[in-house]
Design a protein that fits this description.
This protein is α/β, with parallel strands linked by helices. It has 14 helices and twelve strands. Helices cover 38% and strands 13% of the residues. It binds 2-keto-D-gluconic acid.
Length: 330
């Protein structure tokens, strides 16, 4: 029997590729290039499935140009690179990788909060420049993390994991805003209090963004929200670029309207707004919140499992549009 043809759109762990190769005829991207849309469409020709990452946009045009495509497995929990409605209409199953990255991403969110509030990278750059020649009482002072109010926008799995760290580990009062309020048991587990969005920005000492990106969350944090924040407050984004208006944030940081920001994601990444690069009071990391070795392995394996289960069992572990399976797929 011929094996289904699968495109693995970016480099992944060789062990995962070897497991996929048992079941599929693989086309890989050994150079690990980020393909343009025409290049992606070209590579998808004749493929029954694809393993993608956040850098491959599977939109209505790509779906229409790939009539043999039956499943796309994203190696990411976020799936704003997929037009899920277009995939569903076409009968293409879409999957993502929830749960396996929750705690690792929450660790990183907290690390970025600590680095931002306690000025870790800014002070390291100062030291490396050879400027440290004496102790001074106010050298690199900033806000506290312990006991400060933690504000979380987007209270899904990762938001709740960050809230637990803050509430239980650092004695932080936690406030949150989300499209829907958590049930009482989940709120109690995070010791979190539901507030409206403006209250969150007004009252939090540290705001962490963990909401999914969509048309409705585009620039959810812009000049208006930043203006509500305390001048001593910090902002951390481990969600997606585009949720924050980076130009407005750079201006707020430059003018000292908020103390600092920690950003793992950017509008138009891997490009970073030049105004952010020029600022001292911002910690910048290259979209690595899920990048522990065990977690990246687990993400790759889950994406592979979704493809294998789909073709061998007619189901998937973490489907985004399970109705496609009920309808019998493409
Ligand atoms: C990925 C992420 O590293 O899971 C997500 O949504 O943002 C990251 O964990 C990235 O999207 C690559 O696929």
């Amino acid at each position: 029997m011929t094996k289904p043809a699968i495109l693995v759109a970016r480099a992944i762990f060789p062990e995962t590729l070897a497991r996929l190769a048992v079941h599929f005829e693989l086309t890989t991207n050994d150079a690990d290039q980020v393909w343009s849309k025409p290049e992606l469409v070209e590579r998808l020709r004749g493929k029954a499935g694809a393993l993608t990452t956040g850098s491959e946009r599977i939109d209505a045009e790509v779906v229409a140009a790939s009539p043999g495509l039956r499943v796309v497995a994203n190696m990411a929990v976020g799936y704003n690179n997929f037009d899920v409605d277009a995939l569903t209409r076409a009968g293409v199953l879409a999957t993502n990788t929830p749960d396996v990255l929750t705690e690792t991403t929450a660790d990183f969110g907290f690390a970025l909060l600590m680095a931002t509030a306690r000025r870790i990278t800014e002070s390291e750059r100062y030291l490396r420049r050879g400027e440290w020649n004496k102790w001074r009482y106010d050298m690199f002072t900033g806000p506290d993390v312990n006991g400060a109010t933690l504000g979380i926008l987007g209270m899904g799995r990762i938001g709740q994991a960050i809230a637990r760290r803050g509430a239980h580990g650092f004695g932080m009062p936690v406030i949150y805003h989300n499209r829907s309020r958590l049930d009482a048991a989940s709120e109690a587990a995070c010791k979190a209090r539901y507030v409206d969005k403006d209250t969150l920005f007004r009252e939090a000492d540290h705001v962490v963004l963990v909401l999914p990106y969509s048309a409705s969350s585009h620039h959810a944090v812009g000049a208006a929200e930043l203006a509500l924040m305390k001048p001593t407050a910090t902002l951390v984004n481990v969600a997606r670029g585009g949720i924050v208006d980076d130009a407005a944030l750079a201006q707020a940081l430059r003018e000292g309207r908020i103390a600092a920001a920690g950003l793992d994601v950017f509008e138009g990444e891997p490009q970073v707004h030049p105004d952010l690069l020029a600022l001292k009071n911002v910690v910048l990391t290259p979209h690595i919140a899920s990048a522990s070795t065990p977690t990246r392995r687990a993400m790759a394996e889950l994406a592979a499992d979704n493809l294998i289960d789909f073709f061998t069992l007619g189901r998937a572990r973490t489907p985004l549009n399970p109705q496609v399976l009920d309808r019998g797929g493409r």
